[in-house]
Amino acid sequence: MGKEQRQKAGAEEGIVVFWILKESVCSECGTELWKGSFLKMEGGKPLCLPCADLDHLVFLPRGDTALTRRSRKYSGLSVVVVRFSRSRGRYERQGLLVESAALERAEKECLSDEERRRVARERAAELRERADAQYVSQFAERIRSAYPGCPPDEAETIAQHACEKYSGRVGRSADAKKFDAEALDLAVRAHVRHAHTEYDRLLGRGWERAEARAAVAAKVAEVMERWSRGRGKPPECN
């Protein structure tokens, strides 16, 4: 389970996340990664999913070929999850990380109406259990106050994502719970990068994270400036 094996797994699969069997530590934020966590190797160093800009993706276990195929088709960015098999001495695919909207679309196509409603209820119940509704609402309100041009539905999306329990994201930090301006800015910036630029596509094409961030920095700054001044979409040209 050495460096050469990890490089081989990455070369064969594209972007790869490892389902770890031993504890590790994120090289950027210092978060402890317990057995069973996901990490991405970058420059020979381990990164947690938030630091790797992959925490907006959801895990789809292997097993349903049609669901996997459609989810990958509809997801702008998909990542292979592998785990080392000690018995076989190799990394084996465990599933994918895909965009939530892509998974939902694929589920609608694959499942019967009755089964889809059951899955939707279960996922909704899980989200309700994990989310602190009052805190999320306050976080969204602070975003709208700092960025009056941010569409209300996007402010809510940013708050729900940043504040999800046990995620380690910026919304769960001590500064965020004091509604620190920098914490709010980081949450909004991450959303803009994923939702309003080509960032995910660049990662999907194999760009390094730093290069992809630099390529979209001007667009991110433009959207955030527009939102901070109370403007939503840019004016249309005649």
Widest sheet, order of strands? 5-4-1-7-8-6
Number of domains: 2
Percent helix range? 40-55%
What count of helical segments does DSSP give? Answer: 10
**Given the helix and strand composition, which structural class is it?**
alpha+beta
Query: Which outline best applies?
Result: globular
Radius of gyration: 19 Å
Uncertain runs are: 6-12, 170-177
Write the layout of secondary structure elements.
Layout: H1 3-13, E1 16-19, E2 24-25, E3 32-33, E4 38-42, E5 45-47, E6 57-61, H2 65-74, E7 79-85, E8 90-99, H3 100-110, H4 113-130, H5 133-146, H6 152-162, H7 174-177, H8 181-195, H9 199-204, H10 209-228
Parallel strand pairs: 1-7
Antiparallel strand pairs: 1-4, 2-3, 4-5, 6-8, 7-8
Helix pairs in contact: 2-3, 5-6, 5-8, 8-10
Overview in brief:
The protein is α+β, with helices and mostly antiparallel strands. The protein is built from ten helices and eight strands.
Q: What does this entry look like structurally?
A:
- This protein folds into two domains: 3-115, no CATH class; 131-228, no CATH class.
- The chain is 50% helix and 16% strand.
- The protein is an alpha+beta fold.
- The protein starts with a helix and ends in a 10-residue tail after the last helix.
- The longest helix has 20 residues, at 209-228.
